[in-house]
Amino acid sequence: MLRGVDQRCVPGSQVDPRVAELRSAVARLRRQLAAHRAEFRDRGIAEEALATLAGLAAADRPDIPVLRRSLLLVAGAIGSVSALGEGLRQLREAVDLFGTSPRA
C-alpha cells in the first residue's frame, strides 16, 4: 500500500516509508524485467536506469531530481511493453511519494 507524502519515519523505525516503498517498487520491476523473455531495443537503458534507482533507494534521502530523471528513462525504455506496465505504474507512484523536485 502506498503511503502519503507527509508520512516520514515510523516511530521506532529508521527507514522512511517512502524509501521502503521505492525499494520495493524498484525490486519488483527489476524482477519483472528479468523475467520478461522478449527482447526489446531499450532493455539495456531500462536495466541501467533501474540500477540507478536501486542505488538511490539504498540511500536514506534519495536525490529527487535524479529519481525523476531515472524514472523518465525507465518509462521511455519500457513504456510500450504492456507486460511491464503495472510495475512501471507502481514505480512512478513510489517516486511520486517524494513530491516534486525543486526548480533551479
TrEMBL record:
User: Pfam families, per this entry?
Assistant: DUF5955
Q: What is this protein called?
A: DUF5955 family protein
